[in-house]
Specification:
The protein is an alpha+beta fold. 26% of the residues lie in helices and 30% in strands. Helix 1 crosses helix 9. The longest helix is centred in the last third of the chain and has 18 residues. The model has no long low-confidence stretch (mean pLDDT 92).
Length: 687
C-alpha cells in the first residue's frame, strides 16, 4: 500500500458530522467520499457496507455506535471527516469529536426538524469555541417544509443561521447564494440570501463594511478572511441543503469546505491548559498552541479503539509540530517516551500509512498500551503538564449489576470491562462494597444493551445483568448498652472474653467512633483491638437487614478476662455479640439514599415530570428556563424509587429529557419498607 501524500496546514480541513440519529450523517459521509473519488460506489447503512459503520453491531442494527474517522481529498485539500453517532445514549462518543476539529457540521433531517441532539450539539460546539454550520439533509423527501424548517432553525439558534445555498427543482439540486448567486430556488430569493450573507460577513471587518456600504458590493473572493472570522466568532452559522441519497448539494458542500471553512491555522485555538504538578487543574492557566510544523509536538488523543486482531489503536489530532515514524513521544507526565513505529490515517477500518503528520492532521498509532483517552502526546519534557480542558461529558446514570454466567470467567470479565472503559469515556464500572456488586454505568438502557451485545459477539462472554441493589444503611436512634460473655471449652485450652459496651447515635453522616473507656485493665489492652474488630464485623454486615451500619459511637467500658483462656478470637466474638445486643435495644432503623436530581427537560413537560417525581416520593426544589424551550429542574427523590426512571423520563419528554444524579444524604425509610427488608434478611450461620 502506498503512503498517502502530506498536505500543508493551509490545505487541511477538519470537520465533524454531528446530529440526531436518523439525520443521515453516515450516508452523507459516504456521499462525500464518493463524490470526491475516494470510493467507487457509495455504500448504504441498510446494506451494512459503509466506510464509517464498520463494526458488526453497527451493521446489524443499522446505526452508528462510535466515532469513526475518514478523509477525502478535494481541490488539492485534504478534509478529515469525523462521523458520530446520534442516539442520546452514545453522546459521549459524539462529544469526543469536538476536540479534533475546527468546524462542526450539525446535520438536520429535513422531515424531522430541530431535534434534541441537534440542540445539544449546537450548544456544546459553541461552548468549545468551534465554528458551526448546519447541513439540512434529505431535501428530496416528501412532506418536507423547508421554509418552515429554516425559520425553526433561526428561532432555535439565532438569525445568524443564514442559507449559503438553497434547494431548487423540488430538491433535485441546489443553487449557490454566495459565490454565484444566480437562478431560482424552491423558496426565498437567491439574491436576498446573498445580500443577507454579505451583510452578516462584512460586519466583522469595519474597513470592508465601509467599502461595501459605499460600493454596494464586494467580490466573494475577498470574503474568505471575514467569513472565517464570522464563523469563529459565532456571528455566522451557514446553512447548506443536501440530499445524501441523490447527491444533490454534495459537491457544493465539498466546495464550501475547501473555500470557506477554516484551516488549522485559523479558527479558535484549542483549549489547552498548563496544570501545576502539585495542584492539578485547580490552578490551571491557559496555554496557546501554535499550528507550526517546526515547533514542539503537541497532539491530543480523542479516540481509543481496541481491535481483537490489531490491538489498541490510538487516534489523535496533531495541533503543533510534526510527527513521523521514529518520533519519540511522551504521554502526558510520563518520563518514558514511546517510539512511533508506524503512522496511519484512518479510512473507517482501513489503515492508510503516512510518512508525516503536521498541525491539523488526524492520525493513529497502534499497540501503544500506555496511551489513554484524553492524553496529550508531546516530544519535549517541559510540556508534560499541558492538558486539554476536559470535556463536560453527560453523567452516566443508568446502571446494571453484572456477573459472569460461567464460573471462572471473572478475570475475563474484568479484562473486557477494562477495554470497554478505555474505548468509551461515558462508560465506567464500579464495585459497590456495600452491596458486593460489580455495576457498569452508561448513558442509557440502549448504551448498556449494546455493551452486553458486544461482550457476547466480540469477546464471547455472557453475563447475568440486573438492576443494582439500593445501598441502604443501618443506624440507631437511641443510646443503649450491650453485654456478652464468650466462653467455650473444647477439652484443651478454652476461650473466654466478656465485654460491656454502650452505643449512642451520631449526627447523620458522622460515620463511626470507637472509644476505649475500660478502667483497671478489666480487659487487657492487647485485646481492645479484638473487641473493635468484632464491632467492625457488625458495621460491615449489618444487624437488622444486612446493610452497613453508620453514624454510631461505641464505648467499651468494662469486661472480664481469663489468664489462660482469654485470647483474641474470644474478644472478637464477645465484642461482636455485645454490639448486636446493644443495637437491638437502641431502636435501630434503616436509612435510604436520597439523591439530588438535575434534569434538562422541555418546559412543556415540567408538570408531567413533577407529578411523576411526586408519585416516587420525590420533590421538585426549583426550576428555571434554559435555551431552546428547555428548562433545568432540580429535585430530590429516594434512589429506590428511581428504578426504570430513565425510560420513564424519555416517555414523558418525547426522548428529549436527560438528568444527572448525585448522592445528597440518607433518610429513614418508611416503616413498611423497613419491615419488608428486615424480613428478607438471613444472618450468616455464625451470626
Amino acid at each position: 500500500m502506498m503512503n498517502a501524500l502530506a498536505y500543508s496546514t493551509e490545505n487541511l480541513r477538519t470537520l465533524a458530522l454531528v446530529g440526531q440519529s436518523g439525520a443521515g450523517k453516515t450516508t452523507l459521509a459516504e456521499a462525500l467520499l464518493h463524490k470526491t473519488g475516494m470510493i467507487n460506489t457509495p455504500g448504504s447503512v441498510e446494506k451494512g457496507n459503509t466506510v464509517c459503520d464498520y463494526e458488526p453491531l453497527e451493521k446489524s442494527h443499522q446505526h452508528s455506535l462510535k466515532l469513526a474517522v475518514a478523509h477525502l481529498v478535494h481541490q488539492d485539500t485534504r478534509i478529515h471527516l469525523l462521523d458520530t453517532p446520534g442516539f442520546p445514549d452514545f453522546l459521549g462518543q459524539a462529544l469526543c469529536a469536538l476536540d479534533a476539529v475546527e468546524t462542526v457540521a450539525v446535520v438536520v433531517n429535513a422531515q424531522n426538524g430541530v431535534e434534541f441532539t441537534t440542540q445539544r450539539m449546537m450548544h456544546w460546539a459553541e461552548a468549545r469555541g468551534l465554528c458551526r454550520m448546519i447541513v439540512v439533509n434529505k431535501i428530496d423527501g416528501e412532506n418536507g417544509n423547508l421554509p418552515g424548517l429554516l425559520q425553526e432553525i433561526q428561532d432555535a439558534f439565532g438569525k445568524e443561521c443564514l442559507p449559503i445555498n438553497l434547494p431548487a427543482e423540488n430538491g433535485a439540486r441546489v443553487v449557490d447564494c454566495f459565490f454565484n448567486p444566480a437562478g431560482e430556488a424552491d423558496f426565498s430569493s437567491v439574491a436576498a440570501a446573498h445580500r443577507a450573507l454579505v451583510d452578516q460577513v462584512v460586519e466583522v471587518d469595519e474597513a470592508l463594511m465601509t467599502r461595501y456600504l459605499e460600493q454596494g458590493e464586494v467580490a466573494p473572493e475577498e470574503l474568505h478572511a471575514p467569513f472565517e472570522a464570522a464563523l469563529r466568532e459565532g456571528h455566522l452559522v451557514p446553512v447548506c441543503f443536501v440530499s445524501a441519497r441523490t447527491g444533490a448539494g454534495v459537491a457544493e458542500l465539498a466546495d464550501i469546505m475547501v473555500k470557506l471553512l477554516p484551516h488549522p491555522g485559523e479558527g479558535n485555538p484549542p483549549l489547552f491548559e498548563r496544570w501545576p504538578s502539585n495542584t492539578g487543574r485547580k490552578d490551571a492557566t491557559p496555554f496557546r498552541s501554535v499550528p507550526d510544523p517546526a515547533r514542539h509536538v503537541l497532539a491530543h488523543v480523542f479516540k481509543v479503539e481496541i481491535d481483537p486482531y490489531v490491538g489498541k489503536m490510538t487516534v489523535f489530532r496533531v495541533h503543533q509540530g510534526t510527527i513521523t515514524p521514529d518520533t519519540q513521544l511522551f504521554v502526558g507526565e510520563s518520563r518514558k517516551p514511546f517510539k512511533v513505529n508506524q503512522l496511519f490515517m484512518l479510512q473507517g477500518k482501513q489503515h492508510v500509512p503516512i510518512n508525516r503528520a503536521g498541525p491539523g492532521d488526524i492520525c493513529a498509532v497502534a499497540k501503544v498500551e500506555e496511551v489513554v483517552f484524553d492524553s496529550v502526546l508531546h516530544d519535549a519534557p517541559e510540556d508534560d503538564h499541558i492538558h486539554l480542558k476536559p470535556l463536560d461529558f453527560p453523567h452516566s446514570v443508568f446502571g446494571l449489576a453484572i456477573k459472569p454466567k460461567r464460573r471462572g470467567d471473572e478475570h475475563k470479565l474484568s479484562e473486557v470491562l477494562h477495554k470497554m472503559e478505555a474505548e468509551d469515556p461515558s462508560f465506567h464500572v464500579d464495585y459497590d462494597a456495600s452491596t458486593h456488586e460489580e455495576v457498569m454505568h452508561g448513558l442509557g438502557e440502549l448504551h448498556l444493551k449494546r455493551v452486553l451485545e458486544k461482550m457476547h459477539e466480540q469477546y464471547k462472554l455472557d453475563v447475568d445483568a440486573h438492576t443494582p441493589k439500593v445501598p441502604y444503611r443501618e443506624t440507631i436512634t437511641a443510646p443503649a448498652e450491650g453485654h456478652h460473655r464468650h466462653k467455650k471449652q473444647t477439652g484443651g485450652a478454652g476461650q473466654f472474653g466478656e465485654v460491656f459496651l454502650r452505643v449512642e447515635p451520631l449526627p447523620r453522616g458522622a460515620g463511626f467512633e470507637f472509644v476505649d473507656e475500660v478502667k483497671g485493665g478489666t480487659i487487657p489492652g492487647q485485646f481492645i483491638p479484638a473487641v473493635e474488630k468484632g464491632v467492625h464485623q457488625v458495621l460491615e454486615l449489618g444487624a437488622i437487614a444486612g446493610y452497613p451500619l453508620q453514624d454510631v459511637k461505641v464505648a467499651v467500658y468494662d469486661g472480664k478476662s481469663h489468664s489462660v483462656d482469654s485470647k483474641e478470637v474470644a474478644f472478637v466474638a464477645a465484642g461482636k455479640k455485645a454490639f448486636l445486643d446493644a443495637i437491638a435495644k437502641a431502636k435501630p432503623i434503616l436509612l435510604e439514599p436520597i439523591v439530588a436530581i438535575e434534569l434538562n427537560i422541555p418546559e412543556s413537560a415540567i408538570g408531567d415530570v413533577s407529578g411523576d417525581l411526586s408519585a416516587r416520593r420525590g420533590q421538585v426544589t426549583g426550576h428555571h428556563p434554559a435555551r431552546g424551550g428547555m428548562a433545568q429542574v432540580k429535585a430530590r427523590a429516594p434512589l429506590a424509587e428511581l428504578e426504570g426512571y430513565h425510560s420513564r423520563l424519555k416517555a414523558l419528554t418525547a426522548g428529549q429529557g436527560s438528568y444527572t444524579l448525585e448522592l445528597s444524604h440518607y433518610e429513614p425509610v418508611p416503616p413498611n419498607v423497613q419491615a419488608q427488608l428486615a424480613a428478607q434478611f438471613k444472618p450468616r450461620p455464625e451470626d
